[in-house]
Amino acid sequence: MKVLMFGWEFPPHISGGLGTACYGLIQGMNVHQQEVIFVVPKLWGDEEPVADFVNASGVTIDYREKRFKKLWKNLTYLEVNSFLVPYLGPKAFKKFTDYAIHDRTDVDESIFSTKYQFSGKYGKNLMEEVSRYALVGAQIARDRGDFDIIHAHDWLAYPAGIAAKEISGKPLVVHVHATEYDRSGESVNFPVFEIERAGMHAADHVVAVSQLTKNICVRKYGIPPEKVTVLHNAVLDASIIKSSFQKKVPEKIVTFLGRITYQKGPEYFVEAAKKVIERDPNVRFVMAGSGDLLNKMVDRVAELRMGTKFHFTGFLKGDDVDHMYAISDVYVMPSVSEPFGIAPLEAVRHNTPVIISKQSGVAEVLHNAIKIDFWDVDAMADAIFGLLHYQGIARMFTELGADELKKLKWEHVAAKLVTVYEKILAQRA
Amino acid sequence: MRTVCFYFQVHQPYRLKPYRFFDIGEDHYYWNDYLNRNVIQKVAQKCYLPMNSLLLELIQRYDGRFKVAFSISGTFLDQMEAYAPDVLESFQRLVATGHVELLNETNTHSLAALKSKDEFFALVHKHQDRIKALFNGYSPKVFRNTELIYSDEIGAMVAELGYQGMLTEGAKHILGWKSPNYVYSNALNPNLKVLLKNFRLSDDIAFRFGDKTWGDFPLTTDKFVNWLNALPKEEPVVNLFMDYETFGEHQWAETGIFDFMRHLPEAIFSQSNFTFSTPSEVVAALSPVSHIHVPTPISWADEERDLTAWLGNDMQDEAFDRLYELEKKIRKIKDPELLRDWGYLQTSDHFYYICTKFFSDGSVHEYFSPYDTPYDAFINYMNVLSDFILRVEAASKK
Questions:
Q1: What is the mean pLDDT of residues B75-79?
Q2: For residue A202, pLDDT beyond 90
Q3: How far apart are alpha carbons B105 and B262 in whole angstroms?
Q4: Which of A247, A302, A323 sits opposite B318 (nearest CB)?
């Protein structure tokens, strides 16, 4: 089978978990000898050659194709009516939109005769890039008739998937790694929601990264449950990491590592920290990462008078991430809404016991972890205290967690995906 | 008697280096040597050296009729010794003329007066020792607290230390209808005379001199002397208090600030009956007209002339309280490195960087801060403080 896949990013040039998940999935597909044509907005040249890569920035649109013009008309509407980037809080968003409104270039037909240079990032021209990406999707679908099925990852690539389906008539699978409800809570960005809804409805089948995400697809986007299959993410490498990095402080360390945004629930971690420190002063809390809620968290920590016990590292990269996991005694992921959440599995690889919110997809596959409601800071504090003081449970979690990790393989995910494909193709035939 | 009293604050903090969470417990050196040396050497070229040589020239030309006063913080003295010995020598030459007065302050430009009498006294004594050692046994008679911070209680402590006078801000809200151009006395201890900054005339030089949007731009010596002459005849003293970096650093040489100062004494001598005096001369010559009541502390900072540049937001208060919590333990420790760091960490600038008053005086704060945001400043300070706490705890267990 040959799959035409549309992604948005690919390792090593990634800003979130999407690129890593695509990489894992393709690795798994390769195990089962499935061919993948993988399209990204921008290829950097240093990607591992695991798929037949197509660089969208190198595709020329054939302006004589009448069907493209019709597609483009719909896309233009989408582009002109939305200014957005993901992961911004209300204040930052306001600032961004004020800027973008005064900074828009007019859309004209020149797009049909030139190549478009994608940034492949999540910048201020995101909507413009998404719509042009769709046009490229249509062109590729017309140029290459040799695929059996189309697979689009997350909303940025849904319009490309839809366009490719319209041009080629091949079935479409959309893969939901996250939804606007996860990113923004109830204050959804409507244009993004619209794209997500259109993508899920246009698709022949929807793949969700967790039951949690499937429920959102069904409840918020009106997709019939039988049209959605849950395929949990896996890990690329389940081996235990033995780090020689030593911690320099005598206290135990409890870590939050991720974007400091609404979705990740940083404020619940701060409140729980206060409760733990009141009972046990020999603990340090670390909030690693950056995001639009960082300053608010700093203020709150100062207000709670725990500035010498609660630390901020800023955005960590490279070895620092591993070092942070290595010196952590407990890892907490209090996400308000986490479609999957790969970070706790990284913590498990470092033999660090984890506490995860019930509102995370990873809670469905990681059984040897303490699960709490993100808002229940008392339960979170109890769990942190327990893991720090009762070594038995911490030890059990790290041992059994490591076993669980070994079962989370991308080749298993890919195998299930292939059966999904086969079912769709069989229904068509 | 009608006289002008010039006083300059000479201070630089020991700025912290970027200190990461991973450094806590391992790296015990906190200071940004590169930045600190650069600042001292840059400002030396722009301000300290040229201004010191100008002052020396003026003192010699007028044979001591022109005179000024300095308060030089201990953190600045230490950095001069380390990075700019030529600047230290030029200050020593000035003091040796006998027409330059030195004031005392807390050695590390600290806010201790607001928190702990013991620590305040300890830092003042340290500064006395430093001034004595570096300036040929010099012993100041007048006191200037960090950033002109003053209250009735702080004044009483300063009186207890034996000083005859103290400098502070002529803040509108404490003066009301009264004029800053008289000598006042402390409300709790009348032995301490209080000199108040004439902030209008001081800030005309310090802040507005180079401001082309200012209605009175350009400021000439003639204009300034006219303003002095226009003051009520019975007001005896005009206190012009400012940062020394006004000359060449806050106001660049291109604004003509050095020429202004070069010609100001001549203009004052020839067009007015004003003289120049140092704070101790003013204190000796003039009797107080009344008490000045300052129940809550004032300073010379920002429009509010209060403490909110350093304290008041949660981050500042947290940093401040966690630092001074250590005082009792520190007293018992004799480790010279810990004591040095304890002093440097008290420097008011660290708290100034954490100020969040973006919308009123934020631009001034931003100008002086090595950090992008007050949040960065807080995070970095708390990381350093966390390591310092570990060291203090380890040392007190020994």
A1: 98
A2: yes
A3: 28
A4: A302
- B318 classed as catalytic: no
Maximum distance among all alpha carbons in chain A? 72
**Which of B19, B27, B318 to mutate against chain A (most A CBs within 10 Å)?**
B318
Exposed/middle/buried for residue B71 (C-beta within 10 Å: 0-12, 13-18, 19+): buried
Pull the structure tokens for residue B284.
Answer: 């000796």
Name the residue type at position A118.
F
Measured between CA atoms, how close is B116 to chain A, in angstroms? 20
At B366 the pLDDT is 63
**Quick check: B375 and A298 CB within 8 A?**
yes
Residues B317, A307: C-beta atoms closer than 8 Å: no
pLDDT of residue A185: 82
Contacting residues of A for B314, CB less than 8 Å apart = 299, 302-303
Question: What are the tens digits of pLDDT across the range B135-162?
Answer: 999 999 999 999 999 999 999 999 999 9
**DSSP per-residue codes, A391-422:** HHHHHHHHHHHHHHHHH-BHHHHHHHHHHHHH
Q: Provide the shortest C-alpha distance from residue A336 to chain B (in Å).
A: 25
Interface check for B383 against chain A (CB to CB < 8 A): the answer is yes
Helix (H) or strand (E) holding B193: strand B193-197
Please check the confidence at residue B90 and state whether its pLDDT lies above 50: yes
3-class DSSP state for residue A195? helix
Nearest to B379 among A309, A312, A323 (CB): A312
Residue pair B346/B111 in contact by the 8 Å Cβ criterion: yes
- What is the per-residue pLDDT across B251-303, written as a single tens digit (0 to 9) for each? 999 999 999 999 999 999 999 999 999 999 999 999 999 999 999 999 998 88
Residue B298 has phi, psi (to 5 degrees) of -115, 170
DSSP state, residue B104: B
Residue B324 in contact with partner chain A when CB distance is under 8 A: no
Question: What confidence score (pLDDT) does residue B139 get?
Answer: 97
B229-251 average pLDDT score: 96
Count the neighbouring beta carbons within 10 Å of the beta carbon of residue B292. Answer: 23
Q: Which of B21, B321, B390 sits opposite A313 (nearest CB)?
A: B21
- Give B115's contacts (C-beta < 8 A, 6+ positions apart): B320, B324
DSSP E strands, A28-171: 35-40, 52-55, 149-153
Q: Which of B34, B109, B168, B165 is nearest to B344 (CA)?
A: B109
CB contact under 8 A, B386 and A311: yes
Contacts of B322 in chain A (CB under 8 A): 305, 307-308
Optimal mutation site among B20, B382, B391, interface A, most CBs of chain A within 10 A = B382
Shortest Cα distance, chain B CAs vs residue A328, angstroms: 12
- All residues of chain B having their beta carbon less than 8 Å from the beta carbon of residue A284 are 386
- pLDDT class for B378, splitting at 50, 70, 90? very high
**The pLDDT value given to residue B393:** 95
A50 Cβ contact partners less than 8 Å away, ≥ 6 residues apart = A23, A26, A27, A30, A36
Find the mean pLDDT for residues A268-294.
96
Please give the Cα distance from A163 to A152 (Å, whole number): 11
pLDDT at B30 over 80: yes
Count of CB atoms situated within 10 Å of the CB of B215: 6
pLDDT category, B394, cuts 50, 70, 90? very high
Hey, are the CB atoms on A311 and B382 less than 8 Å from each other?
yes
pLDDT of residue B364: 59
pLDDT at B112: 98
CA distance B147 to chain A (A): 25
Spatial separation of the C-alpha atoms in residues B398 and B396, rounded to whole Å: 5
Say if CB A411 and CB A233 are below 8 A apart. Answer: no
Are B21 and A312 a contacting pair at CB < 8 A?
Answer: yes
- Whole-number Å distance between alpha carbons of B110 and A140: 68
C-alpha dihedral, B241 to B244 to B248 to B252, nearest 10°: -40
